[in-house]
């Protein structure tokens, strides 16, 4: 067992442990913090794979953006410090069944499809390549999805502005 | 000639010749950790003393001048006091998160230190997305502050934490854009590449007025991001009784205090790397003789000199300007800094494409 | 025009900030402006300002005479009952009774150095002294008797 495998298992255990804590804790703020650690663990996994760009983006988007947003909305809700009540038995049962089925599905997929390890063609993933690939119109270019996403974000932004815009009060 | 590079090379070759590679690697890790912790401790002591002296002279006072030579041991005495104090945990606090928060803040500061080149070839981790890594990890520090504010179970702490969160999230934008304008010129995110691209002059001189504008915006934005006056309304002593660390005492408070100064050091070293050439000595174009004379000053001296100059600048801001109100703070960001830095970035891109820089 | 106003605003802001930094920068580099008094070290050369108010004292001249008539104007003027005047009646040579002070009690621990008693005094008998080292080990030592033992009122002061 090489060092990288050991590190992989440590990180994986960290992700799973914090993930389980996130769904089992009964304090909503702690759940957000455990989710945050889980996401950081995933970023660590990307770092281990030497996919630095995606790891940094994972931290920026999920940790710096989404979790902070979640935490802010928790702050603005009432009873954020109180323990939530225990879910009823039926709900617990159903979620357990859903978890088992989901796990079985993933297990089935992994056991049926083998992952071929090809160490021959490692893609050079420096940022300049990612940038040119993102904006290239040629083969494997991502210009169309890129533009689609930007239009989507623009629409969302305009929507936000329209919602937040104050209408001038009519003069009495 | 004295250089940090020589020392690290000597240690590296000695370790590898004495032990087998795995143990040598582990020992290197241990040395790096000890060095980082030592750097933090020294930085805390030096910067707190510096701040107190600078503030005193700017307010026509003398500052600490009793303990040690001209008061130089004052921070040591204060640290000793903080270590010996009892660390109280409030009754209604979320004890786990309350204890975790200072360490989160500290660990984030340690992580950001990794890609910073302190001297020629003296860098812990030359990651190829250096600048992006720094921006990404520094966005984590807000989590520690929010955690501290929430778990204290105190309305002032919570208010301080929320202000701090809003402030950091919004000022990250203009800081990021200011950083991007230099990345556009360099064409690389790697910090060592950025330093090397300033071989024939620092970007603040080579990039004309747009570089100066983005430098100013960067300094303003990082002052806000580190929650320092005039943007210290997250900890505003007079209204929120120190904000998110109201309930902290003893060593945990010391960790927050230390993290604040370490963060200042980090943002100033990023500023120095991007705009003032990092460890690169002061070079002018093709003046070989002049450049050669400048090379005689060790690169670590250049780096720390620039960083401390920027730190002094930020301290100067702190002891001159009054605190902003929250609406003024957000106005400054969204109505002034962000549009200006966006326009500036466009200008910079045009410059980079047309090659209008030296 | 909007954009001109915007630029003017930014320019004005930067200019005013630089003015402030110029001031603090001046103080930072000019150490002779420092006003801190290193108190116990410079005890001998310490210069207090003229208007500094340390405590209330009663002026006595070389004949051990003061100007206090015992009118209690200061006692009435005092906002927190710092002064308590105990009067007595002297018998003049002509056989008339005359009001005079027996004891001028001054509670330093209650005094806020507001100067109202000094302003109220019609004869200028009391004044503010510049002494400021008032720390004692017992609170009762702060209750002072201002008229010196054996002192009497100066002739001609009514």
UniProtKB/TrEMBL annotation, chain A:
Membrane-traversing stretches: 6-24, 31-49, 55-76, 88-110, 142-165
Single GO cellular component term: plasma membrane
Protein's UniProt keywords contain Membrane: yes
Keyword Ribosomal protein: no
Keyword field: Cell membrane, Membrane, NAD, Quinone, Transmembrane, Transmembrane helix
Subcellular location: Cell membrane
EC code(s) of this entry: 7.1.1.-
Pfam families, sorted: Oxidored_q3 (PF00499)
Matches recorded under InterPro entries: NADH_UbQ/plastoQ_OxRdtase_su6, Nuo/plastoQ_OxRdtase_6_NuoJ
Homology family: Belongs to the complex I subunit 6 family.
Chain's role: NDH-1 shuttles electrons from NADH, via FMN and iron-sulfur (Fe-S) centers, to quinones in the respiratory chain. Couples the redox reaction to proton translocation (for every two electrons transferred, four hydrogen ions are translocated across the cytoplasmic membrane), and thus conserves the redox energy in a proton gradient.
Protein name: NADH-quinone oxidoreductase subunit J
Organism: Limnovirga soli
UniProtKB/TrEMBL annotation, chain B:
Root EC class: translocase
Predominant cellular place of this UniProt entry's protein: membrane
Membrane topology: Multi-pass membrane protein
Keyword RNA-binding found: no
UniProt keyword terms in alphabetical order: Cell membrane, Membrane, NAD, Oxidoreductase, Quinone, Translocase, Transmembrane, Transmembrane helix, Ubiquinone
Catalytic activity: a quinone + NADH + 5 H(+)(in) = a quinol + NAD(+) + 4 H(+)(out)
InterPro entries for this protein: NADH_UbQ_OxRdtase_su1/FPO, NADH_UbQ_OxRdtase_su1_CS
Pfam families: NADHdh
Gene Ontology MF term list: NADH dehydrogenase activity; oxidoreductase activity, acting on NAD(P)H, quinone or similar compound as acceptor; quinone binding
Bilayer-spanning residue ranges: 23-49, 96-118, 130-150, 171-191, 203-224, 253-276, 296-316, 336-357
Known role: NDH-1 shuttles electrons from NADH, via FMN and iron-sulfur (Fe-S) centers, to quinones in the respiratory chain. The immediate electron acceptor for the enzyme in this species is believed to be ubiquinone. Couples the redox reaction to proton translocation (for every two electrons transferred, four hydrogen ions are translocated across the cytoplasmic membrane), and thus conserves the redox energy in a proton gradient. This subunit may bind ubiquinone.
Name this protein carries in UniProt: NADH-quinone oxidoreductase subunit H
Species assigned in the record: Limnovirga soli
UniProtKB/TrEMBL annotation, chain C:
Matches recorded under InterPro entries: 4Fe4S_Fe-S-bd, 4Fe4S_Fe_S_CS, NADH_quinone_OxRdtase_chainI
Database matches in Pfam families: Fer4_7
GO terms for MF: 4 iron, 4 sulfur cluster binding; metal ion binding; oxidoreductase activity, acting on NAD(P)H; quinone binding
Keyword annotations: 4Fe-4S, Cell membrane, Iron, Iron-sulfur, Membrane, Metal-binding, NAD, Quinone, Repeat, Translocase, Ubiquinone
Domain 4Fe-4S ferredoxin-type positions: 59-88, 102-131
Gene3D superfamilies linked: 3.30.70.3270
Entry protein name: 4Fe-4S dicluster domain-containing protein
Superkingdom as given in the UniProt entry: Bacteria
GO cellular component, one term: membrane
């Amino acid at each position: 067992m090489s060092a990288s495998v050991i590190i992989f298992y440590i990180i994986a255990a960290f992700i799973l442990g914090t993930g389980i804590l996130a769904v089992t804790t009964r304090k909503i703020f702690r759940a957000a913090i455990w989710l945050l650690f889980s996401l950081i663990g995933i970023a660590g996994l990307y770092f281990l794979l030497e996919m630095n760009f995606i790891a940094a983006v994972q931290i920026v988007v999920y940790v710096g953006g989404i979790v902070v947003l979640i935490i802010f909305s928790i702050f603005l809700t009432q009873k954020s410090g109180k323990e939530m009540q225990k879910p009823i038995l039926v709900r617990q049962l159903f979620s357990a069944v859903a978890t088992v089925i989901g796990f079985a599905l993933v297990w089935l997929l992994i056991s049926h499809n083998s992952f071929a390890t090809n160490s021959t063609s490692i893609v050079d993933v420096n940022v300049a390549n990612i940038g040119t690939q993102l904006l290239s119109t040629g083969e494997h270019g991502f210009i169309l999805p890129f533009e689609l996403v930007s239009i989507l974000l623009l629409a969302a932004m305009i929507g936000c502005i329209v919602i937040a815009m104050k209408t001038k009060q009519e003069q009495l | 000639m004295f250089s940090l590079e020589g020392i690290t090379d000597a240690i590296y070759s000695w370790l590898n010749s004495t032990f087998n590679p795995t143990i040598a690697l582990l020992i290197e890790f241990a040395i790096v950790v000890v060095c980082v912790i030592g750097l933090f401790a020294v930085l805390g002591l030096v910067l707190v003393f510096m701040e107190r002296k600078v503030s005193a002279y700017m307010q026509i006072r003398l500052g600490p001048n009793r303990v040690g030579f001209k008061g130089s041991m004052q921070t040591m005495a204060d640290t000793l006091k903080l270590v010996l104090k009892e660390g109280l945990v409030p009754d209604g606090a979320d004890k786990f998160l309350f204890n975790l928060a200072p360490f989160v803040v500290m660990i984030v500061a340690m992580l950001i230190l990794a890609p910073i080149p302190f001297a020629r070839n003296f860098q812990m981790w030359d990651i190829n997305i250096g600048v992006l890594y720094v921006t990404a990890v520094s966005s984590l520090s807000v989590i520690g502050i929010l955690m501290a504010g929430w778990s204290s179970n105190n309305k002032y702490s919570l208010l301080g934490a929320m202000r701090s969160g809003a402030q950091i999230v919004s000022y990250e934008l203009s800081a990021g854009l200011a950083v991007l304008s230099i990345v556009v010129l360099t064409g690389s995110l790697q910090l060592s590449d950025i330093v090397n691209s300033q071989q024939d002059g620092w970007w603040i001189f080579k990039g004309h007025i747009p570089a100066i504008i983005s430098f100013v915006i960067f300094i303003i934005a990082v002052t806000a991001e580190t929650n320092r006056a005039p943007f210290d309304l997250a900890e505003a002593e007079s209204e929120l009784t120190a904000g998110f660390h109201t309930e902290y005492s003893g060593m945990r408070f010391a960790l927050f205090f230390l993290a604040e100064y370490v963060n200042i050091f980090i943002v100033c070293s990023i500023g120095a790397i991007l705009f003032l050439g990092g460890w690169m000595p002061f070079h002018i174009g093709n003046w070989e003789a002049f450049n050669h004379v400048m090379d005689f000053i060790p690169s670590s001296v250049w780096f720390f000199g620039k960083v401390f100059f920027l730190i002094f600048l930020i301290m100067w801001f702190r002891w001159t300007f009054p605190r902003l109100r929250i609406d003024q703070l957000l106005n400054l960001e969204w109505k002034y800094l962000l549009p200006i830095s966006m326009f500036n970035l466009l200008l910079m891109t045009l410059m980079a494409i047309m090659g209008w820089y030296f | 025009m909007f954009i001109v106003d915007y630029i003017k605003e930014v320019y004005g802001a930067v200019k005013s900030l630089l003015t402030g930094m110029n001031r603090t920068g001046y103080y930072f580099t000019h150490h002779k402006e420092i006003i801190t008094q290193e108190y116990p070290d410079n005890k001998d050369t310490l210069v207090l300002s003229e208007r500094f108010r340390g405590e209330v004292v009663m002026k006595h001249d070389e004949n051990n005479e003061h100007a206090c008539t015992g009118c209690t104007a200061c006692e009435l003027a005092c906002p927190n009952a710092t002064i308590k005047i105990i009067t007595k009646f002297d018998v003049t040579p002509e056989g008339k009774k005359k009001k005079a002070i027996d004891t001028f009690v001054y509670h330093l621990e209650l005094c806020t150095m507001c100067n109202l008693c000094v302003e109220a005094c019609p004869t200028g008998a009391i004044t503010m002294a510049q002494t400021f080292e008032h720390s004692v080990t017992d609170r009762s030592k702060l209750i002072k008797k201002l008229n010196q033992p054996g002192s009497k009122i100066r002739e001609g002061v009514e």
